[in-house]
Amino acid sequence: METQQVVIAGGGPVGLWLAAELRLNGVGVTVVEQRTEVDQRSKALTVHPRTIEVLASRGVHRRFLAEALKISTGHFANLPDRLDFSALDTPHPYTLFIPQARTEELLEEYALGLGAGIRRGHRVTGFTERPDSVTVRVEGPQGPYDVRADYLAGCDGTRSTVREAAGIGFPGTPSGYLGWLGDVRLATPPPPGFNRFNERGGLMVVPLPGGRWRIVGADPDSATTQWPGDLTLEELRRRTAAIAGEDFGLHDPSWLSRFGNATRLAERYRRGRVVLAGDAAHQHYPAGGVGMNVGVQDASNLGWKLAATVNGWAAEGLLDTYHTDRHPVGEQLVEHSRAQTHLFHAFTPEGLALRDLLSRLVPRSKEFGEVLAGRLSGLDVAYPGGGPAAHPLTGTRAPGLTFTGTGTGTDPGTDLFALLRADAYLLLDLTAGGVLADRARDHVTVHHGVPVRPRAGWEGLRAALVRPDGHLAGAWTEQDDTELRAAVDGALATALGRAVPA
Known about the structure:
Radius of gyration: 24 Å
Distance between the termini: 46 Å
Number of helices: 12
Shape: globular
Structural class: alpha+beta
């Protein structure tokens, strides 16, 4: 029987990013993917700011920036007034427009380069768990075989075989609306950014690479629990013309599809030696283009914790915090997608009035727009802190700080994301004298420097401990050096599960 440290079911963006995170920690990993090649029918087209930061924390973002279109706005339920991402506190105040197929290709190249094994044309069919391992059953081109692993990660979509075999509940609500989309060629394309929303329905037309266009929309007939059959080109043409007044000469479809609003959330993101991420953990209406992004951010939270558990360098119980961190994010995702679903299908006079009212609030209420932009971009995610005595920053995302350097004149400075490592905590020593320099050790790096631009809440901070996923494990304002060292040592001992040498 084969052995492997981690088997990942599913080779989409979530599974590939998880594989890369594990390999950066030296963990052996095999990705089992049923598809024999990357699916060119891209469900996702948008990479949000927080996901770009996640990519930047491993130096991978440049591959995406080199070929993706930057868009400085986002939308909530396709309201006419768009959200301004340019004001967000991030080095990447924009979304990247890039087809999911290309995202998968880039991430597969990255994971393979790190030594991940990827088996296409294979699929996980079940598993047997034991106290010290999990035996994964796989169906390959040459027949079935077993792989014995330490852990199994289900990144295998909404119909997850792993989730079902683990007996993890997936409660929620069935689909009551059906949207539709077509990737086609247009004889007379509309101007960029075209969208319509009226009593006849809502419609967006988006350019794709290769001279194709995506037409995506919904109309009053979309409110149904009955499957009307596969979408046809003639139906797409008819529905488009009804909403937009013309069909743009659409022809030569490469993909015609319907999608529903079934909404479900896994009861547990971990059970024993099985973990879930991405669509295997949450299903929702594709509102705002956030689904793939939340999945990659799941994998960012999970990867270092799973690796630290396998390699034994972190505190006992760390892997359990994956659920306590990310399940509330899934709950928020479900809430927002349901709210947007209602607005996407609000074609009555009352519904149109509600949309107009909410849309006008976006530019008129700075706080309203910022809250929606923070949620959509993923930048406002904060995890449970360290208790009532912890600093308020604990659990929040570390912003894109740029540091002045060591003060020696030889280090011109660097940014926080470049300092992050998948296998180590980052201790930011913000003291004038660098009093924490000797706290560097295995799985802890220390950077001494002063942020170029102050951030709200960081005033008076003398040190901060940043997790491998870019969220704060602690922050301190103690003025006495001895007290500061003791507080930091306590946090490191908790994080690493062992006392820190004096």
